[in-house]
Specification:
Largest sheet: 10 strands, antiparallel
CATH superfamily: Immunoglobulins
Radius of gyration: 23 Å
Number of strands: 10
Shape: elongated
Helix content: 25-40%
CATH topology: Immunoglobulin-like
CATH class: Mainly Beta
Length: 159
């Protein structure tokens, strides 16, 4: 084999190895970023509107970005549960929020829609629990978020 061909193959292999290393390192960094993002509820969810289709609950979220890079966060779904039964969920949207490096962002006015059917199915349990436990039933109310960080699915976080 010609020396020039050998040198060309060697340079191509070296370039592929270096490029592969940086791609793996970049991918690992993105996964670490997705795992470090923290999403929390800000305050108490508020009833925004009650109409013929059901009830809309407004929530505000705080997003912590401890990473050194800018993060784009897509929130396709936030769900509300009572005692592990689905009460309400957000409508699907593809809106993206940008959180600056090493900072905290706020996402306001996210609407969670509760249909009358879901509320009616859970009403007997909620009423009975309220009669027996009073305001402690708030402990059985939970929220979770399914999100995407920089295109990587974020684990489901309980809020």
């Amino acid at each position: 084999m010609d020396t020039k061909v050998k040198i060309g193959i060697g340079l191509a292999a070296a370039a592929a190895a270096v490029g592969g290393f940086f791609l793996v390192k970049k991918g690992t960094t993105l996964f670490e970023t997705a795992d470090n993002i923290n999403v929390e509820l800000l305050g108490i969810p508020k009833i925004h509107k009650i109409d013929l289709s059901g009830m809309k609950i407004s929530v505000d979220l705080r997003v912590d970005n401890p990473a050194k890079g800018r993060v784009s966060l897509k929130l396709p779904s936030i769900r509300a549960f009572y005692n592990r039964s689905l009460l309400a969920t957000t409508s699907i949207n593809n809106r993206t929020y940008v959180i600056e490096p090493v900072s905290t962002g706020k996402i306001s006015g996210i609407m969670i829609e509760a249909s009358y059917l879901n509320m009616l199915m859970n009403a007997p349990t909620i009423v009975n629990d309220f009669k027996s436990q009073g305001s402690k039933i708030i402990d059985k109310l939970g929220f979770d978020v399914i999100a995407e960080v920089n295109g990587i699915p974020l684990k489901v976080q309980k809020l």
